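hi! just following up on the protien thing from before. the input was this:
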Amino acid sequence: MNITIDNLSSELGVSRSTIRKFIEDFDLKIGSVLDDELGLKDNFIKFAHENTDFLIKYQEDILAEKTPKEIAEKINQPENKVKDYLQKDYPNLYESAGFKTSISSYGVDRKLGGDYQFVYKYFDEETPLMQYDFIGYRDLFFYLVDAIEPFINPTQLENWGIARPAGIIIYGPPGSGKIFWAKKIAKMIGYQFIEAKDNYFSIIMENGKSKKFSEFLFGDFNKPKTLLFMEHFEGLVRTQTPENPMPNSLIKIKNTILQTLSHNLEKEILYIGSANQLTGIDEEITAPGRFDVVIPVFPPNVEERAEMILEHMKINLKPDAPLLQVLKANNADKLPFWMPTAQKMKLFSNTMLIDFTQALKKKIHSEYIRVNGKNVVISENIIMAALSEATAKLTPEYLNQCANFITELAQNNGSDFSLRIQNLLAEIDQYRAKEIPIRKIGFNVSDEEEEQQPQQDNEES
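and the predicted 3d structure came back as:
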């Protein structure tokens, strides 16, 4: 039987939220702490048993409100460094010199260079090329765990009256990894993952016979412990208006989805819809007992971008791969090398980061051939050339989608992801401030459009 965070919490007398917060504060990779069934791995269990006293102190520290001065004294760091860190990373919380917070003193100390090797030694057995399911996103991971807990813990209904959702909507900008998180949910709850392709929502030809979406739902898909993933969900279940009517085929699909939801809980079937935005989705769909759980998926923050670059630069390499040797020779096999590049990638999606690493690998390979494999330098010019290629997808349309997402994130999950929202707003403002004039949506026209604008205005006048 797997030992879960709840089991360990009861055994040690340390709350579940404390263990989760510790994992976030110390940037432990979820893949090195938990398996796919949310069982704790042996190295973390060993750490917790051997360092229970520290976890208890950590818990007491989180629960206690303290001033920056008190934090500085506790961790033996200069008060001005603590204040600067809190103002930078928690601007909404930092109000005055008398401000008190329940932020972890140990987490602050670690960020300011405190030595916590006694924690990380438990995870050193991981090889440098260990590939994890995902990087970062610890806050989103634990939010997701809470959302699907009724599937994992049947007593949620009996003890708390919390029922399993019949449907979940995962929303976020394109390329942010919505299908990845849907597959992750399927693994965590032990359901078979099935994706309904776009052509499933029309007539399907199979063995020369036509097959409708409803037949797919009641036939092939109608099996216990199955998760159906539907992409472009906002287009399937949008609100119909006189100005924007829906074709009869889509109305039938939406009605079929609504009709089958009530049976899904008994049959252990879960629908997950993927949407770039929630705006425009029919309120009938998001009513209680239907798709009433929404999970945001956001562009990675700067630390996650650096981790992803490093991971995708090393992915699938064998230990003696020439690229790995080049990375080591340039100290590019470590995170600090990639932080300056990650800082330039404001609002980059996961797919843009992958595009960047693919372009960079090709350029490094070309340089390797040019110098005959000797003293290959990953220069700023090479990095910027690859970055320029990846930036092509950073279009005004994409930035507009990010702006809409931030608004919806604040409305639906503001208290859960306040720091994410602050970071996203700061990054999107970098694009808003670049040029003038400004479009209605807040982004800038190109120089060419700007030159044409006065002429168009004169013609209209």
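Confidence is low (pLDDT under 50) at residues 125-132, 435-442, 445-461.
The chain has three domains: 5-123, 165-296, 301-461.
cheers
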